[in-house]
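Many introductory courses stop at the sequence. We go one step further.
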Amino acid sequence: MKKHIVIIGGGFAGLNISKTLSNVENFDITLVDKVNYNFFPPLLYQVATGFLESSSISYPFRKMFSKSKNIRFWLGELININALENKITLSNGELNYDYLIIATGTTTNYFGMENVKRNAIPMKTLEDALNMRNILLQRIEAASISKNIEEQEQLMTIVVAGGGPTGVELSGMFAEMSKNIFKKEYPELKHLSDTKIYLIDGSNSLLGPMSLQSQQDTLEAIKEIGVQVKLNTQVVDFDGEIISFKDGSTIKSKNLIWAAGVTSMRFNGLSEEFYGRGNRLIVDEFNTVKGTKNIYAVGDTAFMDSDKNFPNGHPQVAQVAMQQGKNLAKNLLYLQSNKPQKPFNYNDKGSMAIIGRSKAVVDLPKPKIHFKGTIAWLAWLFVHLMSLSMPRNKVNTIYHWALAYFTKNSSLRMIIKPIRKV
């Protein structure tokens, strides 16, 4: 008999499971997501800064699986899991399952700071990226007509909280935009000094998980292009006008971009003992949620405590999600054939971050190699281009990248249906 697989979440993990099991006769698959498209998170910052269209990094699920005979899409949100009856409740209906796979990724973590949650600009979803673009463009326009220099500086000061890849990439992009775009297109602001770009992190380094050499190279390069870096500095409050830090210092700015942390989601129906650090579901080496027989968690929402190389869980990066998704899909096929399952073994292919134009860092684990500069920048471009889900995305992206590289500009800075007033 066919088994019904319900996958909650169409990110890296959910998409790889779906693609691996597409048109497999033994399975009927329902992919559930609260949006109707897959998107590529590593390039969100380029949508937020107007260098890529949203369609360059996204693709509709229904079109993606239109030729698959066994995959159906359901636009909805998970409300409750009934493990005893093998049933889930969604925001708009119910589904029974033989296997339930939770691949919901993470959500923004504000660490309990309600003012920061209310006033900061998040950077997690495609909607967040478009909202950021709208807000920042509106604030630059507001600065251009203001007669108050202090207000202009407050509107034009950008503070990025979080020194991971997203924070580094955003602050680097803003610094280059300040140099190549703002002064040319906003003559009303020429009397101001350079737009102040701050990059804040609570630790003592940028790009914490990367090598010491990458951290040092990044710090040097990001400062070189005009970003002011404040390490060992924690945001404690933001009222929409002033950003306050744990050491008592402040920065006057309307623009706090929050890239400082993520957390996984909790689900009704799964009790406290199912969760580990960061609200991640505790799974065994086959990604089965401990205490269940047919519920799985993959990617950022999974905490695998059986891997001795990663006692604190695997890093919450795309590589892990993709590899776990493919491994779980193969194990489900093995289950149907009464073959032994294969435990998950993470193959670290390295990490990279882009800093600015012709500036990037790359760490490769096997052999242990670090490189930077133009070669690293080209490697970053190639890997991210190849990782996009569909050919149309690749063509759109390379076109806009080429245009931006040769002109040092873009033509995508439109304010379209802003959902938040400045």
